[in-house]
Amino acid sequence: MKHILRAQQFDPKFIKLLFDRAESLQELADDQRRHQKLGSLLSGRMMFLMFFEPSTRTRISFSAAGQHLGMQVVTAENARESSSSTKGESLEDTIRVLCEYQPDVIVLRHFEVDAAVRASKVSSVPIINAGDGHGQHPSQALLDLYTIHREMGRTTKLNIALGTDLLHSRTVRSLSYLLGKFEGNHLIFVSPAELRIAPDIKAYLKRRNISFEETENINSALKKADVVYWNRIQKERFTGNFPPQTFVIGSDQLKILKPKAALLNPLPRIDEISEAVDQDSRAAYFRQVGNGMFLRMALIEWVLGLL
Ligand code: NCD
Question: Is residue 58 in contact with ligand 1, taking CB distance under 6 Å?
Fold first, then answer.
């Protein structure tokens, strides 16, 4: 069965297949004459979205992706509060129950690291990890990389600056794993000392001979970067006090950035990028959202064995 659990599971050949398909789905949607075809591709199929943590983009883009392809979509959006997990039901039992309703795929967001892996062990249908605590968010990383591919024309030989809460950001973690699959990339991790990237990522990059550095100097990082990937401080994942956001990209930072750089953010944007940046052509974060829906359509097709 084809689950989507961690970014490490993908290789460049698969990623190319996925990007090509996302691009052709995007073309299909843009072409008025052929648009109807899109809605018949997955008609009769059913997708469940089980979200135990808050979400706007991931939930709605999976839902929109499925519905544009003609699927039926069943959503539980506050599952932590409104499902039987409040009564003490295990995740495994919840998944066993959902499978009895015969979905074709289950998209799961959960507050515990490795929840999707646990779900995949008892599920009779593909599981897509839509974020597991501060673990991973593989579909986001694929759409981030897809955006890099579209903005920069390549996913190799790039200097990528990643900030700001590298310890808790599952999107930074998954994207780092993916970037490590492509030759010649150099990763610049920018964070305060207490929010540095975790050892598992560094060990992986070393194993793959991907060069990286860690810095607290935002300006020197931005100067070198072809791609900047900026994610908020993940306040909900702190038990003590969280540090204030000191790594803000505003108008002054735009002056340092290369003229052809691309600035990405998985969103939500809080205070790590100021709104003044939005009008700059290098700000790619809203285009990133649109790319995400098509990338997720291709992913759904793949887990269903249709790609
Ligand atoms: C991210 C997440 O949930 O990890 N959001 C998303 O899925 N686009 C990033 C975040 O919440 O900061």
Answer: yes
**Are the beta carbons of 108 and 130 closer than 8 angstroms?**
yes
Distance separating alpha carbons of residues 176 and 164, to the nearest angstrom: 13
> Residues 100-114: pLDDT tens digits?
999 999 999 999 999
The token pair at 119 is 């779900």
Q: Return the closest-CA partner of residue 123 out of 99, 100, 102.
A: 99
Please give the positions annotated as active site: 57-58, 87, 109, 137
Nearest CA to ligand 1 atom 7: 58
Distance CA 255, CA 275 (A): 15
Question: In this predicted model, what pLDDT tens digit does every residue of 168-187 receive, in sequence order?
Answer: 999 999 999 999 999 999 99
Ligand 1 atom closest to the CA of 171, numbered from 1? 4
Q: What is the mean pLDDT of residues 283-288?
A: 98
Q: Is the CB of 232 under 6 A from ligand 1?
A: yes
